[in-house]
Automatic annotation (TrEMBL):
Coiled-coil portions: 48-79, 107-134
Keyword Coiled coil attached: yes
Protein name per Swiss-Prot or TrEMBL: ATP synthase subunit b
Keywords for the protein's UniProt record, in alphabetical order: ATP synthesis, Cell membrane, CF(0), Coiled coil, Hydrogen ion transport, Ion transport, Membrane, Transmembrane, Transmembrane helix, Transport
SUPFAM superfamilies hit by this protein: F1F0 ATP synthase subunit B, membrane domain
Domain of life: Bacteria
Source organism (scientific name): Candidatus Daviesbacteria bacterium RIFCSPLOWO2_01_FULL_40_24
Gene that produces this protein: atpF
Subunit-level organization: F-type ATPases have 2 components, F(1) - the catalytic core - and F(0) - the membrane proton channel. F(1) has five subunits: alpha(3), beta(3), gamma(1), delta(1), epsilon(1). F(0) has three main subunits: a(1), b(2) and c(10-14). The alpha and beta chains form an alternating ring which encloses part of the gamma chain. F(1) is attached to F(0) by a central stalk formed by the gamma and epsilon chains, while a peripheral stalk is formed by the delta and b chains.
């Protein structure tokens, strides 16, 4: 083994010094470089894990929000349909009431017109009677030469009207 050490030019003191230097360097790297890098990598891993978890939670909330919006839209559509139906029924009722009221008003106007015409007819009939009575009285006075009393005029008028009416 000594021969091998001489052939390769290995000096045991330098080899031992290099081994010590390597162990010191390894200790220093592990202590000051490797641990902080592992710590940074671990923190980065935790941050990424937390971000993924937060993203999942946000996605779940978004899904719930979308579902709630759909429910609200469906509810609003149902309420709108109900309001439209209610408004249509109310409009139909108002139109029906207006037609009924217009019909009643028209009937009242027709009845008032009938009454007015009846009153006008009665008034004209009275005027015609009075005119006929005057003419009969004048005619009778001209024919007989004497004036008629009120009672005679009434009797003559009644008799004449019966003959005219039929």
């Amino acid at each position: 083994m000594e021969q091998i050490i001489k052939d390769f030019g290995i000096q045991p003191v330098f080899l031992a010094a290099q081994v010590v230097n390597f162990l010191v360097l390894l200790f220093l790297l592990k202590r000051f470089l490797y641990k902080p890098i592992l710590k940074v990598l671990d923190e980065r891993k935790k941050t990424i894990s937390k971000s993924l978890q937060d993203a999942q939670e946000i996605e779940q909330r978004l899904q719930k929000t979308v579902e709630e919006q759909e429910k609200i839209l469906i509810k609003a559509a149902k309420e709108a349909a109900g309001l439209i139906d209610s408004a249509t029924k109310s409009a139909d009722l108002i139109i029906s009431e207006a037609h009924t009221k217009a019909s009643l008003n028209m009937e009242e106007m027709m009845e008032k017109t009938r009454q007015s015409l009846s009153a006008e007819k009665e008034k004209l009939s009275q005027e015609v009677r009075a005119e006929v009575a005057n003419l009969l009285t004048l005619g009778f006075e001209k024919i007989t030469g004497k004036a008629l009393s009120k009672q005679d005029q009434e009797e003559l008028l009644q008799k004449s009207m019966k003959d005219i009416n039929g």
